[in-house]
Amino acid sequence: MLRFAGKDRLAVAALRRRLLARHISTKNSVLCDNMSTVAGSAAPGTAAAPSSTLQGPDSLAKQYLQPGFLKDKSAVSPVTLSSRDFDIFTGSQIGATVRMANKRDVMSLWSLLEACLQANYNERSLSILKSLYNIESHRRTFIDDYNLYCSHMCASMTSTAEMSKMVQHDLTNVFPGVTMNAKTVAILVHHSIRVAPKGADLADLKSDISIFLSQVPSGPKAICANVDVLTYDDFKVLYRDLGLVKLQQLPSNIRDMLAADEVEATTAAAGTKSTDSTATLPPADSAEFNSLMNSASKILNPSATTTTTITTTEASKVELDKDVETVEKDARQLVNVDTLGMKVIRHTLLGLSLTDEQKGRIANFSFNAGENIFNLDEAKTINFFDMYSSLKTPEERELFEKVLEDFNQDRQQSLEVRATDAAKERWRHDFEEAKARGDIAIKKSLNAKLWNWYSDMLPLMKKEVARCKREVLAAKGPSKKYDYAPYLALVNPEKMCVITILELLKLNSTGGIAEGMRTARAVISVGKSIEMEFRSEQLLKNESYMLKDINKKSNEFKKYIRNAKKSLRSLHLDEAKVIWPQSIRAKVGSVLISLLINVARVPVEGIDPITNQKVYGDAPAFSHSYQYHSGIKLGVIRIHPALTRQLNGDKMIASVQPQLLPMLVKPRPWVSSKSGGYYYSQSNLVRTKDSPEQTAYIDAASKSHAIDQVYDGLNVLGETSWTVNRRMFDVISQVWNTGKPFLEIPGIQQAIQYLPRPPSDADPSVVNKWKEQNKEIANEFASNRSMRCDMNYKLEIARAFLGEKFYFPHNMDFRGRAYPLSPHFNHLGNDMSRSLLTFWKGKRLGKDGLMWLKVHLANLYGVNKVPIEGRVQFVEDHMDDIRNAVENPLESNDQWWLKSDKPWQTLATCYELIEALKLENPEDFISHQPVHQDGTCNGLQHYAALGGDMIGASQVNLIPDVKPNDVYMHVANNVKANLIEKLKTKPDDEIAKFFVENINRKIVKQTVMTHVYGVTLVGATLQIDKQIHAMIGDKKKSLAYANYLAKEVFAAIRQSFNSAHLIQDWLGECCTRISKSIRLDIDRKSLEKNNKPDFMTSVIWTTPLGLPIVQPYREVSKKQVDTNLQTVFISDPFAVNQINARRQKAGFPPNFIHSLDASHMLMSASKCYKDGLEFASVHDSYWTHAADIPTMNKNLREQFVALHEVDLIERLKNEFDERYQNYVKVMKIPTDSEMGIKISKLRQEMTEQLGRPVNFADEIEAEQQRLALLQSTQEEDVERGKQMVTTISLAENADEIFTNEEKKGDSGRMVIFTRLVLPEIPSKGDFDVASVKDSTYFFS
Q: DNA-directed RNA polymerase N-terminal domain: from which residue to which, for each copy (predicted)?
């Protein structure tokens, strides 16, 4: 038997050369050229080495869709991923570090190049370009970097010859081997047109541009695609004046504008209105658009002499010199929490305000000439929802919505970009007001203080920017000390001052630091905010630049301009690839914070100990120091207690940025991983924190169109239109303004009321109890304070959006679960937030709708475990209570609706139902109320379907039944039964006795619900403690009881859902093995010294919709950055570290289930959209109109069956087997076992053959050779492979041979490699998922 290839190293090398010379062909797909072959390279004169036969980690990152999956195989394209892009994440730590260092260097140089070009540091820019050129791996895309430089340099040149000479010199002498692309030519074309003398003969210009156009094989169409370079005037010259491009070679938006321009010119020459000629427009926007514009042009022209449009001109700046407090609305103003966060929210919301001109245009809107169908009362504010609701026909409503969408375009821009200017103006206004009232007013006014800080900081900021410019110009090379200098010149100093103040105050009491914040967090936050401001300014500048010379005023032409702006905006956001390095963000933030610390002061007062008189002075508002937090020394920025009191303890839990509000127009549809959501800021498809691996997979899947169905589902969620429920707002605001606690709204608290201190001689236990009680009081005060601030945000936003039509753009977490991008006010919020939201569009109730509205009311009240008929009857039995709730909702604290599980939503539904019943035929009522259908413990539903668990399926209502089963009551009953049995053997068990008497479904509900999502014993203990604490009182005793019950609940769940737990255990075991595995073609150097292998393998799978899920759990590494405040340690977004095996295992089962329920939701969303339904979701709660519940219910069931009709666990196993097929697991086995003895013996033989101690790299290499032989098409090679024995082949099935105990420990154990083999799938039960289609209570 051939144990090793030859007796010495020469024999091994000879075998390699022999195999290479024969061109071993493979039975599998080949790896890319950077993967190892049998090792070594071909000898001189021999044939080139063939590609490796070993498959890389993602040569098979394809989707294994079984026949019939989703019935539509064409809907999901296979993801073809190159190993070259992904082996970095699964190789060695050293290899990853080197590769990512290159990526980090490129990104740093990119950002520095961008900054230097913006600041006109041309010599430095050229030096940076040379550095980029010298990075070999970056050479392929270097022309993109050169184009940035070329565009900047050409802008200052005055002749075409000068530009041509520069480009020719650079690409020939400075950057040899680099060739022009279409964008380079577009730059030369644009600037040639720019410098051409006005009125001169066009022959020379045409000749020059003709030469340029011939430089790229892709031709004029590719050159004209660069709409971020060529302006509208450029296209006119190329098409009309020079005739060098054809109309069909232009981008569609430009074609439309040129065609519309010609129509306007023609009609103007004929002396007619351009608006009457829209029928001659090109058909780019369809016949429907032409019809719309024909109507709208007549509707929206208030006079015959002036052509106007219902769109705003420019996003107007709000003048805050006037005492504008809130958006003007016909609703009571709120008694606001007086915090900085609240002020910024209100400044931002002023973007919703309408000018008098806009109001006038709306007032003239009429479908019949001379008649204003809205009967606008000039004394009232404009309510678009009232207008829309008053329209009589579907055609009128459709037209109104299209016109409103146009009208809101510029309002949306104002909403997204206005916050900084508004804040500064407000500070100045308050300072002037306070100054007029005297010094005391200035001291009391927070805004006046902020204006003082701003005024004092601005001169220092300007000096710092000037000094940085001098340093850059004087520097002969890169300087670490001032490497941040080019970045400080990118944003206006005034804005940088405002941003610094806002960011620092928003971070108050974050990161576990009372009255302050962590320094590292502060500097990064400020630096990143400066970067985001720069990006936003650039986007607006580029947009204006392209269309700068357009002065057309007609409705049609402005429509085309808006379309062109949208396309340009999307292009810039999609291609945005530059991010500032974390070190630069930290240094920029540090400089700005240092300046603020230097000037910001607050007035203080105290008692002179000698004179006993009150004295006044000032003290620094911020100070830098260190403190220990959880045993770690942290740099912190403290906020002076006087300022903290003025901030009212507001935690400022989220940055209040303008892009975080609902949108007035439909969100940008998702078409790529960076293209969707808001219009003036980039949103990422996946919410991920420093996970380059996840980003790489998502980008690859997006480019291959594998996740188009995911985009479709997210776009459905984003296009659902909403408005604010006016009735509910009036009730809630009335409650709010009393300042008293009501339901989940905490009351106003001015100061903490502590318990009096015990006497000095009190027993220590009494003192400790006093301290504990006061700590709870302080925590409750802080919690209520924070909650009231958060609710204030929600209510102020709701008030501003009264009468508006708005949307919630969505993205998702790494598991595919969808979330609105606007955090403060959305339908994922609490009961109050949800009650304030209603669908913009209404639908006639009909018979089914009336019934489902009643069912919805019962569900909200908590009556959801009885049959549908019983729920309807419950509502009909309480009609008097419902009418009383509507007529007198706040009459007493004993109202029927207040006892509901979800009282605010219950009241909203009461209003809707009573309004319907007022009609002679309630079925004719147009309902806007969202009606919910909730799953029964959705995670367990998926587990039951995966495992074919009949008992579990019955408990979670997958099987048809006459009434709904209550899984929480079922578990509670099982726990009770188990405790009764336990008391038979342990009659003195006091805890068991307690729970036998007191257990109920409410106590176990949260633990049952979250158990499937990986809740730990500690987490379950805290959940149960929250339910039983009031019954027991003593905290320590309550926790002990809760821990006891948590264990019993876990046992009862396993008892009730055995098949589900077998699946859960299988997922966990798969993860354990994958996490301890390495690639067979791993870098030899990392194993030569028998070092412990680097475990780099994440658990990765593909959802049924094609979304690649990468668990981001890796060890955290920090990078040290020296700033002028302190040395900070920040996370490195380019770091690829070893995986965290514990978190990988704990996260995989719940994350897999989350990925399935996310897929089900997105599939259901797409189907409902196709059926014409409005659709929204809160994870496993799906919403639509009452009338559409039967259709949605049918879709939910069909999509669940479509999801699970494929054996998803078998599909996952197949994907794992393919993805990880050439991986080996590292494990320990007993040295004295039969396998251990055989492996030791073979290692000894290999040592003798090599003449040195064998190492892990040798063992891996031997296995590579064996597999290469086995996969050859030559019989002789295959036979050699069969005869060859390696340490890895000897360790076959080691995981199954040894117990877990035998694999643990170090004594008497040896480390081996064994082929990664995943455990067999647990046997599946008899449940047929198709029966879900007939289950009334699956979702109900």
A: 410-719
Asked if 215 contacts 192 with a C-beta cutoff of 8 angstroms, the reply is no
Element spanning 618, H or E = strand 614-620
Contact of 1087 with 689, CB cutoff 8 Å: no
* pLDDT higher than 90, residue 719: yes
pLDDT of residue 438: 54
What tens digit of pLDDT does each residue of 267-290 get?
666 554 433 333 333 343 444 444
Instruction: Tell me the range of 348-352, 784-788, 973-977, 1032-1036 where mean pLDDT is highest.
Output: 973-977
* Helix extents (H) in 631-761: 641-646, 692-703, 708-719, 726-738
Distance CA 594, CA 589 (A): 8
In the chain, count of helices (H) and strands (E)? 50, 25
- Compute the distance between CA of residue 1256 and CA of residue 1075 in angstroms, rounded to an integer: 19
Return d(Cα 810, Cα 822) in angstroms, integer: 8
Share of the chain above pLDDT 70, in %: 74
Question: What single-letter DSSP state applies at residue 878?
Answer: T
Please check the confidence at residue 1168 and state whether its pLDDT lies above 90: yes
Query: Which distant-in-sequence residues (6+ apart) come within 8 Å of 464 by Cβ?
Result: 488, 591, 595
Identity at 889, one-letter amino acid code: P
Confidence of residue 964 (pLDDT cuts 50, 70, 90): very high
Bridge partner residues of 811 (DSSP): 819
Distance of alpha carbon 533 from alpha carbon 585, whole angstroms:
13
The pLDDT tens digits for 89-144 are: 666 655 666 666 677 777 778 888 888 888 788 888 888 888 888 888 788 888 98
791: three-class secondary structure by DSSP: helix
Q: How many residues does this entry show for the chain?
A: 1340
The alpha helices in 1100-1207, defined as continuous H runs, are 1141-1170, 1189-1204
Task: Let me know: does 1099 contact 1088? Beta carbons within 8 Å.
Answer: no
DSSP string, 493-524: HHHHHHHHHHHHHHTTT-TT-TTEEEHHHHHH
The alpha carbon of residue 345 and the mean position of all alpha carbons in its chain are separated, in whole angstroms, by 21
Torsion angle defined by CA atoms of residues 1100, 1102, 1107 and 1111, in that order, rounded to the nearest 10 degrees: -20
Pairing of strands 931-934, 1181-1184: antiparallel
Question: Phi-psi bin for 1179: left (phi > 0), alpha (psi -120 to 50), beta?
Answer: left
Half-sphere exposure of 42 (CA within 13 A, CB side): 16
Q: How confident is the model at residue 1117 (pLDDT cuts 50, 70, 90)?
A: confident
SS3 letters for 276-289? HHHHHCCHHHHHHH
Cβ burial, residue 295 (10 Å; 0-12/13-18/19+)? middle
- The predicted model gives 910-917 an average pLDDT of 96
How far CA 409 is from CA of 405, 808, 860, 1296, in Å, comes to 7, 15, 37, 63
Rg (CA), the chain: 35
| Three-class HEC string of 729-790 | HHHHHHHHHHCCCECCECCCCCCCCCCCCCCCCCCHHHHHHHHHHHHHHHHHHHHHHHHHHH
Report phi then psi at 1309, rounded to 5: -120, 155
User: What 3-state class would DSSP assign to 392?
Assistant: coil
Q: What is the pLDDT of residue 547?
A: 57
Active site residues: 934, 1005, 1180
